[in-house]
Hints:
The complex is a heterodimer of chains A (556) and B (334). By secondary structure, chain A is an alpha+beta fold. Chain A has helices spanning 2-32, 61-67, 119-130, 143-149, 201-209, 275-283, 295-303, 332-341, 344-351, 381-390, 414-427, 439-448, 467-474, 486-497, 501-518, and strands spanning 41-46, 75-77, 84-86, 89-94, 100-105, 165-172, 175-180, 213-214, 219-220, 237-243, 248-253, 266-271, 289-291, 315-321, 357-358, 397-404, 431-438, 454-460, 521-526, 531-533, 537-538, 554-555.
Amino acid sequence: MRILKSRAVRAVTAALAVGMIATGCASERGKDGDKGGDKDTFVFAGAGDPGSLDPALASDGETFRVTRQAFEALLEHESGGSKLVGGLAETWSSNPAGTVWTFNLRKGVKFHDGEAFNAAAVCANYDHWFNWTGTYQSSAVSYYWQSIMGGFKKNEDKEAPKPNYKSCTAKDENTAVIEVHEPSANLPGGFSLQALAIHSPKAVKEYEKQAASGKGDAITYPKYSQEAGTVAGTGPYKIVKWNKGNKEVSLERFDDYWGDKAKVKNLVFRTIATEEGRRQALQAGDIDGYDLVSPADVKTLEKEGFQVPTRDVFNIFYVGMTQEKNPALKKPQVRQAIAHAIDRENIVKTQLPEGGKAATQFMPDTVAGWSDKVPTYPFDTNKAKQLLAAAGESKLKIEFCYPTEVTRPYMPAPQDIFELMKSDLEKAGITVTPKPMKWAPDYLDATEAGACALHMLGWTGDFNDGYNFIGTWFAEYDKQWGFKDPAVFSAVTAASKETDPAKRVEAYKAANEKIMAYLPGLPISSSPPAIAFGKNVNPPKVSPLTQENFAEVSFK
Amino acid sequence: MLRLVVRRLLQLIPTLLGLSVLLFLWLNRLPGGPASAILGERATPTEVARINRALGLDQPVWVQYGRFLKRIFQLDLGTSTKTGQPVWDEFALRFPATVELSIAAMLIAVVVGVPLGYLAAKRRGGWLDVASVSGSLLGICVPVFFLALILKGIFAVELGIFPSYGRLSTGIDATEVTGFAILDGVLTGELDAAWDAIVHLVLPAVTLSSIPLAVIVRMTRASVLEVLGEDYVRTAESKGLEKSVVRVRHVLRNALLPVVTAVGLLTGSLLSGAVLTESVFAFGGIGSFIKDAIDARDYPVLVGFIMFIAMVYVVINLLVDLAYSLIDPRVRVN
């Protein structure tokens, strides 16, 4: 017994000793935060890992958040707003037909690898994208190029879109001219996208040596896009390390930056997938800020002294009505009844963070083309009942799909919102069959395939053009909505083809009015997404497009 | 002994083949696919069809299976549809974290669990016994996820004693040699990095150890109680052998046999517990990666992972049998 006792005692003592040392050491860490009190490093947490260090290969916000600090596009949005301003191009113009775009480039700009920025560099990038072959032509890789510029020099897939990009010419050192075949509603907004940010021509040459490979059954992203080293942009930060194991991308201030230098030397993006985890990491002092704040946490964080600015609204949340799934939805009165039955103000009041707005059309009021003359459908249960009776659908039964385990910037608590809508619809005499589904891929697949009579979804804009919202859904037949109405489709398409900006805005207004008269679904709300920062941080201007510039961040 | 090892390893082949067929059929029946996970809200039927074609998912399941088998024979697990990187590379990057976490959790469970179970049995009915039995019941009942949140809430958020997430602090520039953060720190002489890794490991390891700890305490206790009543223990005691010799050589050695088996099986199951623990602590191991893979219908990763786990189980079982024969010569197969 003596031996065992002494062994046991030794083991316990050793464990305690380790524990105490750990505690002591960690307490020291806790006092200063993870960064050891240094004000040289700003740590920001997102919800997902970036997919690639080359934004041209990406289509997700988490990737763009990181790359946006290192790569700049020809145009950008004003800090904290949605107005298009010069980026790497100081000024820009197009011919009246909207097919020739001339960019007067900023002088004295250097890439992170020492190369000079000029018109040839711009063309090297655009030609590089246009000449993509093989796996790069998959929309899983080049989604944004294809949605803005169409297909490639040589389309290898017959389903690939028709190329709209024609050429890029370096007229002189500081003038680049990009030509397209047809005017597009995606221009000039598309020139501001991270996916079309300009990389150093030397880096582009390296990129070209490393084709994305596909063995027929998979897409392998090229090596350069997975580790810092080759990629080089012109932004205020350069990417120095991507530690995938520790879920962390490290950036360092670029001292030769042409504009205002970044205030904090090191910028680190870390991935913490859960909302709860990000909040706790901020409260524990382990990070200096995070995105995708749950609306339920905003008040708690503010009370604790954290800064939780909300962005201007630039998203739309809607209920889709799939006419082909439930024939009753083909009757306009039924769609109108559903619209009257749902109390949107109540959803905004109880479910959205402060600053949320009930929607009257399929775009937020911050987008040019929003109309104040659209037909509206105010909350009125009795009217809903009357409309249903008039349509002969007093005993309407309808399936309503909603996603679980997800929050989106436009839809903070899907299940709670669904419950409110269900109860509203039932008050109007509609029997709702709930169909909860896992967000990805089940729910997204089901809604996209038109498998849900009613469903809820939304959209955050990429740039300030009406087509980026209504064009996404109503330019042509889409299974999600399951209807064919030439008047709606042609109104949206015509607006996108209008090259005069003022006339285009008017055309979008008219299209919105047509859409809301037809009522293919019900726009519910626009919600201001919140972002959180530590107490000792001077945050950047928050952007409605979630395009924060972290070079503006400093410590108090 | 060698024959046993070889035979057991050969048994892996039909096991893995059978498993791969079941997996393929199961994945094929799951709703959805990777395309809409890649495209999110932007998915349109045309885009989804194009991606499915690019990934070969539009082909019959037997064609996909044939392609998979062909790859496997070339020791290639394919490419993750989510990250676009070879599955082996992704595993190599993340396994060290999970292995480190599992070893730490198992160490806590064994080092604390065996003595506690032994003492509880020796002092049956005493306060220590009551406390460890009820404590272990709690350990089994409380979900790992919940425990993780509580521990994090208290020790990371409220008290600030331990970090709330990750494997290493920001700013710790550790050189990677093996991928095992603690070992690398020691090997390269970067002791601050090794220490930082240990500090980051404490809360997740304690969380993950809760179930094995509880099981080991209860099994050791029950097993020691059983052995204490055996004739040979009484005989040894009556022969006048020193008490410590009886306790270690007769009681503990025999009582540990079922515990060793349990440790083996628990080690395998730790990997599934790691999925939740790693998610809560954003630990960057294979657990959280698998969770993401399920959400993204990342078939190559899922198939590769499950096959790998099956392999780990077989190997652990083999090790358990070998350990068994070391502890108790009677069960030596040869």
